[in-house]
Request: fold
Amino acid sequence: MKNVILHSILFSIAALVRVQDAAGQETTTGNSMLWSIVNPIAPTDTSYLFGTIHQISQKDFEITGKIEKAIEKSEVLITEMDLTDPGMFSQMMPLMMMADGMTLDKIMSPEDYDALSAFMKEKTGQTLAMYNDKKPFMAAMVVMNYFIEGTPASYDMTLTQMAQKQGLNIKGLETIAEQMEVLDSTPYDEQAAQLIEMIRNEAETRASFAAIVKAYKAENLDELNDLLDENLETMGEKSAMLDDRNVKWIPKLDEWIKANRCFIAVGAGHLPGALGLITLLRNEGYEVSPVFE
Reply:
């Protein structure tokens, strides 16, 4: 199922791609969601890179021992956005709205709008009218809660709470405006079409989500790579949602890692790839290795 909006919700606008080196050979990365980052100049100052999944059922959620130990050794938590920013929600509200008076009932056929409305009311208890003037991915997030099955859990929020309890400094790689800009690179009508695809192919959506969660829990990057690659159709989508952001993050990460022991938590799709964070950090001279339980 080709669905950019699904992969955006699950892995924060990122997808796994097979890693190719300059000679065209696949790069071995290993299977783990947690990676150590060692600066050869100061090898005792180890930082960590952790790949998250942003929407998952509480029954599938787990903070493993290796994650707890890595957090305990760290001084700074770095996430895609600083969830402790008191101004984040006020900044987010206007960015949720569609521009130029556009609404869902204007960009969707009456049949699709009615189908989505009925689905949301039956499956989630929410009315589509609440989201009519908002960007389609907002309704998609509500729909995804149905496929999650059970109380949703958040690695980002849990790690932030752990960091606050431990007294870590917290930094964000992007602002909410920057993340919304990436989502806006997919036109409204395409977002809406992908949302309709999710509900009209309910069994396929549920199976895709279950397979992704299974691979994530197994920390199987190879399998996750294959599953998420199905959600990208063009190199332009990959660049906007993954590569370009990774390249922008590296100068910040390089500065912060050299100054502190950092725990970096970003969508799992940001880890591998020719322009993934593992490779880019290695290019900066860091030794990046998988951490096993």
The first helix runs from residue 4 to 11. The two ends are 33 Å apart (CA to CA).
